[in-house]
Amino acid sequence: MVEITAAMVKELREKSGAGFTDCKKALVEKDGDIKKSMEYLREKGIADASKKSSRATNQGLVYSYIHTTGRVGTLIELNCETDFVARTDDFQLLAKEISLQIAGMKPSYLKREDVPVEVVEKEKEIYRAQMKDAGKPAQVVDKIVEGKLDKFYKEFCLLEMAWFKDDKKNIETLIKESIAKIGENITLKRFVRFELGEN
Questions:
Q1: Which CATH number covers residue 79?
Q2: pTM value?
Q3: Rounded to whole angstroms, how far apart are CA atoms 52 and 32?
Q4: Deepest in the core among 12, 25, 35, 54, taking most CB within 10 A?
Q5: Does any domain span residue 1?
Q6: Which pLDDT tens digits describe the chain residue by residue (199 residues)?
Q7: Number of domains composing the chain
């Protein structure tokens, strides 16, 4: 068994942003392996973040971002539990990252539940038409259509989009990691994207 030193705990704290106790527990659990301890903290953090998701978020901020060209801008409402957290660098950074994602990736909706039923039905119709001559059984076509619909959500719904800085994470995961780090529930309530000349 590896001895867990203060230096190891310090290194993990600096890399993860997690508390002393959580870092020490992770290192003990993963036998001093920093990389595995990081993964453990991320998994634990996301699990803890899910528990916090029922807490009310009545504070936060409206964050604006204008791209350097002045042709694209975004406005978001990001909520948290206390005004203290809304003023922290971590919270402001999350708001900025989400705004950059919106500016660059052009999401149409916040989450899949926001996509109008007629849009979903039209997409399904298009996918079925594409499969018409494939000669596959109906249940196979249904599965393919559902798969294509999932891909559609990942392309057009902000929370399901791959983060432009790390495509192994989506925006929802990015928010959950911030919940784990900050220790408060965070919700992205709404966003709008402006581009010069677009309606």
A1: 3.30.479.20
A2: 0.71
A3: 28
A4: 12
A5: no
A6: 778 888 888 888 777 766 677 788 888 888 889 888 888 877 776 555 556 666 677 899 999 999 998 999 999 999 999 889 999 999 999 999 999 999 999 999 999 999 999 999 999 999 988 888 777 888 888 899 899 999 999 999 999 999 999 999 999 999 999 988 888 899 999 999 999 988 7
A7: 3
